[in-house]
Amino acid sequence: MTTVDAPAVFAPSDSPSRPEKSSTTDALRTALRGPDEELHRRVRAAVLALGDRPRSDLTYAEEAALAPALLRSAIAELGGSSVAIAADVRMRGSLCEWAAIAAPHLIPVLTGHLDLSVGAIATLGTGAQYQAELLAQLDAGTAVGELALTELGGTNGSDQQTTATWDAASDGYWLNSPTAASWKFMPNIASATPRIGVTTARLIVDGRDEGVLPFLLRFRDADGSLVPGLEVRTLPDKSWAPMDHALIRFNALFVPRDALLGGDWAVMTRTGLRCELPPRARFHRAIAMLGEGRLDLANAASAVARAGLALLVNYAAARRPGKVAMIERGTVRRDVVSALAAVYATSILGYQIQDMRSRTRAGDPRQAVWSMLAKPLLAYTAHQVLLTCRQRGAAQASLRANWIGDWIGTTEGIITAEGESQLLLKQAGLAAMAGVDITAFDLPAAPAQLPWYLQLLVEREVTVAAGLRHHDLAAAGVAIDRDTAAIELATATAERLAATAVHTAAQHTADPTARALLESAGAVYALERIYARGVWYAAHQRMPARCACAVESELLRHRLVLAEHLGVLVDAFDIPLEALDAPMASTDYLQWWQHWAGWSSSPLSGALA
Question: Which parts of 158-242 are beta strand (E)?
Answer without folding.
Answer: 163-167, 172-176, 184-185, 195-205, 208-220, 230-234
